[in-house]
């Protein structure tokens, strides 16, 4: 595998009800992503976008095929090995934010660094950098309920980046955001993509995300129907 390859998936399938009427959520998918890509995974509801994202992120296991991330076939890892691999290699941004309500914004972002056993000094430095990036340095001690939806999602992005992952998987990250918040979030992620060469793969219905992507992969009935750059690629403002 090329050294710049981040994700290499071969013949990946996920089947439900295999013993009765099989339903292929993901059907024999091949997917190759290079470092630094900014890619949107699109398609109608039920096309397999979230399932494929979960398989690539190691949150679910395929029924067949292999998924190689940074040279490691994650389909061959044990559950404990997979947890450790995710901790050090993959950042996740969820549609519903998934912030812990009793923790402050800072504590939510710090949590993954605690799991990595980083020192307090290293955690403080990283949190400071991240909150500068997401323009929320004044909200470090705010709890999720005290933040707007756009601010919560920016904290979720900071949490995804806290472990310094090779790539970030984002499932409908702008779905609950107004236009201004969505564009602010996309600008932040584009800046990180361009300046730090972080790879982003989005599952999305949002035309605002699709227009910013440099590559668009369309899924239909669990299969890749097209793989191309969008007609008009917008750039960060």
Task: Explain what this protein looks like in three dimensions.
- With 237 residues, the chain is α/β, with parallel strands linked by helices.
- The chain has helices at residues 49-56, 79-89, 105-115, 120-133, 149-161, 179-196, 207-212, and strands spanning 5-16, 23-34, 38-42, 64-69, 72-73, 90-93, 167-171, 199-203, 215-220, 223-228.
- A six-stranded mixed sheet has the order 6-7-8-3-9-10. A four-stranded antiparallel sheet has the order 2-1-4-5, covered by helices on one side.
- Strand 7 (167-171), helix 6 and strand 8 form a beta-alpha-beta unit.
- It is globular.
- The relative contact order is 0.19.
A few lines on this structure:
The chain is α/β, with parallel strands linked by helices and 237 residues long. Helix content is 34%, strand content 27%.
Query: Ranges with pLDDT <50 over ≥5 residues?
Result: 233-237
The whole-number mean of residue pLDDT values reads 89
Shape: globular
- H/E series: EEEHEEHEHHHEHEHEE
Number of helices: 7
Q: Total number of β-strand segments? A: 10
Keywords:
6-stranded mixed β-sheet; globular; single chain; 7 helices; disordered C terminus; 4-stranded antiparallel β-sheet; 237 residues; alpha/beta
